[in-house]
Write a structure and sequence with these properties.
By secondary structure, the chain is of the alpha/beta class. It is built from 14 helices and 15 strands. Bound molecules: adenosine-5'-triphosphate and magnesium ion.
Length: 390
């Protein structure tokens, strides 16, 4: 049996003359996501339709719940464009809901096809009659157990379960960024927030094996994989920073070690960004969250960046970050106990308000650029694709 999913386009509908390129990117992303299964993806008047055999419904639903650029989606019943067929379909869905315990309902109708002889209000009244005339369900306009949606377009679509989409702009419409991805809660959320602005996101992770465990790296790989299900694909660049960390430990004052490490990460990220043509760096920093994230210390980090440094979590509190982490399914992975490199080498009394001048002086004394270049050249690269998750 063929089924049809309907997705509502989000913010991109606000785009003026270049709306086409946003729509086309959304369709490309959807087709790419579903490229291993036979589906038709059709775009028409602010809606995207996916048609396929019922056996693929689980995969299509996975795609739609990860697809950035749609505000909502639903599995629909399609029917002929006449009020008898609509009423029959509304009644069928209403009775199914009744079996699942619903007692009250309302119909919400929309008529995009203005040649249809009834207006939305008339469609609502007429199509609801099959359910309330024989008392199957009661009408409740304010707080119904179910809402049955009817959309009269080139065909007629009827559905009850509408799901919230990821919203945002389709990935691939806003350039490319390099995300510094650690194993914590914040950086995956930062990456997701930029994906939702339409950015392609590639990742870099710095480890200090054997001071950090293989599990810590596996955790970051899992996070990158999860991000790829929203970002269509992502690449994780893994750099060994063990020698850089040892050099910092040897040469920098202990209280400066975290700041020095951040500066080294920026140097490496600059190199990598240039190599992959990323136009900005992204971190999960949130103002005041930890010692290294005071305004002064963030200014030091930023002073090393050769391209814009974006911090999408900067004004979020922990609760907001956690909520998003739950939503995008990174929470359980992020809270696993394996530490990333920063924690093991972190000083007891870190400098809270570093000056850029002093930080640069210490950086020059450490003189880490050769070692950083080596870690960049010896990086390991892993690729993750959204359609592999199906
Ligand atoms: P997170 O929850 O993202 O780990 P955090 O609260 O632990 O952040 P920090 O450890 O100060 O904060 O790191 C700040 C940011 O620096 C991170 O959000 C991340 O973008 C980057 N970062 C830190 N450690 C690493 C690492 N080992 N590899 C890549 N990026 C890192
Ligand atoms: Mg961290």
């Amino acid at each position: 049996m063929k089924i049809t999913y309907l997705a509502k386009l989000g913010e991109l509908t606000l785009k003026g003359s270049n709306i086409k390129s946003f729509e086309q990117q959304l369709v490309r992303n959807t087709r790419d996501f579903l490229k291993h299964i036979p589906v038709d993806v059709i775009l028409r008047a602010g809606r995207m339709y996916i048609e396929a055999e019922d056996e693929y419904s689980e995969k299509i639903e996975f795609c739609l719940s990860h697809l950035i650029g749609i505000t909502g989606w639903a599995r629909t019943e399609t029917c002929e464009k006449n009020i008898e067929a609509i009423t029959q379909t509304v009644t069928k869905l209403g009775l199914m809901a009744k079996e699942n315990g619903a007692k009250t309902f309302k119909v919400d109708a929309r008529r995009s096809d203005k040649s249809f002889p009834m207006d939305s209000y008339e469609i609502m009244r007429a199509s609801a009659s099959g359910l309330f005339d024989d008392g199957s369900l009661k009408v409740d306009l304010h707080n119904p157990d179910i809402i049955i949606y009817v959309e009269v377009r080139e065909k007629c679509f009827v559905y009850t379960n509408s799901h919230i989409g990821c919203r945002g702009l389709p990935v691939g419409t806003s350039g490319k960024g390099l995300l510094l991805l650690s194993g914590g809660l914040d950086s995956p959320v930062a990456g997701y927030r930029m994906l939702r602005r339409g950015m392609r996101v590639e990742c870099v992770y710095f480890h200090s094996y054997p001071y950090t465990s293989e599990e810590a790296q596996k955790k970051v790989e899992d996070l990158a994989k999860t991000l790829s299900t929203y970002g269509m694909q992502t690449t994780l660049n893994i750099l060994s920073f063990t020698d850089v960390q040892m050099l910092i430990k040897e040469k920098a004052p202990e209280s400066w070690s975290t700041i020095a490490l951040r500066m080294c990460m920026m140097t490496a990220s600059n190199m990598l960004a240039k190599h992959i043509n990323a136009q900005c760096l992204i971190t999960g920093e949130s103002l005041g969250q930890v010692a290294s994230q005071t305004l002064e210390n963030m200014a030091v980090t930023e002073s090393m960046a050769e391209i814009p440094l974006l911090r999408p979590c900067v004004g979020l509190d922990k609760e907001e970050i956690v909520q998003t982490a739950y939503f995008i399914n990174t929470y359980e992975t992020s809270i696993l106990p394996y530490e990333d490199c920063c924690v093991l080498f972190s000083p007891k009394h870190p400098v809270l308000r570093a000056s850029i001048e002093e930080a640069k002086k210490i950086y020059n004394e450490i003189n880490p650029d050769e070692l950083i270049k080596k870690s960049f050249e010896e990086r390991v690269v892993k690729h993750f694709y959204a359609n592999e998750a199906l």
